Amino acid sequence: MSAIVLKAQLKTGETIIVLIIFFILLAGGMVFYARISSYTAKQQKQETQELRAIAIEQRIRSLSEFACTRDAVVVFDCYDLSKIRALQETIPNHALYYGNIIFTNAKVTITSLYPQQEEIVLYESEEGMASQPFRTPVTLYDPVDDVYNFGYITIEVYS
Amino acid sequence: MKKGQTEVIGLLIIVIILSLVILFVLKTVFTNKSTDTTQSYEESKIVESFVNTLFQTSSGCTEDTTIKDLLIDCAKNPFSDGTITCSNGQKSCQYANETIGYILENSIQQWGLFTYEFIAVAPPNQNIIHYTSGDISASMGGETTPFILPLGLSGKNLYVYLCLGGCGI
């Protein structure tokens, strides 16, 4: 084999190796980009669900249906347990309003922790996978026993 | 230009491009600080609502005392364990301690989202209640602004801290 042919083969081999390395780098870059994109999408989805949970919490806060009142004055961050139970029974009759406007696609649970223990599922949407629950402590007033309970509202937003 | 020089320039361009790519990756990975507004909202909301709710809660000690009443009584008389005697025979300090411990364990601690430190400081600088969970560290930037309860006409105050991550005080 002549020297020219040998040199040409060497050059071809070099080009092939360069191309292989280039494609390996390209593939690595694409995999990295895909992973970053998927991670960012997950983060965005979670943040959207958290924002929706906060929005639901704000709406619940402004609901006059179960706010506590003392001498006709609304008590801050306090909910009346008897009104909550009454609302729980009423919600199925107004499912369109509460399901589409107030508790959009979520599960809302009210838990009384101390001194009385009770858990009320106020509303539960039928579909989807729940997000990380958003919880906020509230006072739950029991007018029958005249007791102010320490409790919290749990909001789980469905995707 | 000689062939050798051309190859060196090509190599240099490749090195520059690779360096730029590595710099971009490092910047993306290490300096991508997410503006987690929802978490900061949740943290501040939990601290504020937790303490306000705790103060309003019926203590169960006697029929008409709240946890706030027990804390104030305990802060006024920390050395005698408080003056209020509960229905189970416990004094206000002990009762408040146990009740607050129970509530903390079954709420913030059970949720598992944050480590916390709960402190009630009575004059003269005495911790009448102190609860912590997990590994607390002040560097986590917990809320250190106290909730102040005036102790009657004495002009002294009870300072209640709930810090997510640790108070550092």
Outline the structure in words.
The complex is a heterodimer of chains A (159) and B (169). A 6-stranded mixed β-sheet of chain A has the order 1-2-5-6-3-4. The radius of gyration of chain A is 30 Å and the shape is rod-shaped. Chain A has one domain. By secondary structure, chain A is α+β, with helices and mostly antiparallel strands. Chain A has helices at residues 3-61, 81-90, 95-102; strands spanning 67-70, 73-80, 106-114, 118-124, 134-142, 147-157. In chain B, 46% of the residues lie in helices and 15% in strands. A 4-stranded antiparallel β-sheet of chain B has the order 2-1-4-3. Chain B has one domain. With 169 residues, chain B is an alpha+beta fold. Chain B has helices spanning 3-30, 37-56, 67-76, 92-106, 108-111; strands at 116-122, 126-132, 147-150, 157-164. In chain B, a hairpin with a 3-residue loop joins strand 1 and strand 2 (126-132). The A-B interface holds A 29, 32, 36, 43, 47, 50-51, 54, 75-78, 113-115, 134-139, 147-152 and B 21, 25, 28, 34, 36, 38-39, 41-42, 45-46, 49-50, 52-54, 56-60, 66, 99, 102-103, 106-107, 111.
- Quaternary state of this entry equals heterodimer
Largest sheet of chain A: 6 strands, mixed
Overall structural domain count of chain B = 1
Proportion of beta-strand residues of chain B: 15-25%
Question: What is the overall shape of chain A?
Answer: rod-shaped
Total count of strands of chain B: 4
Give average pLDDT of chain B, whole number.
86
Name the beta content range of chain A: 25-35%
H/E element order of chain A: HEEHHEEEE
How much helicity do the residues of chain B have? 40-55%
Low-confidence stretches of chain B: none
> What is the H/E string of chain B?
HHHHHEEEE
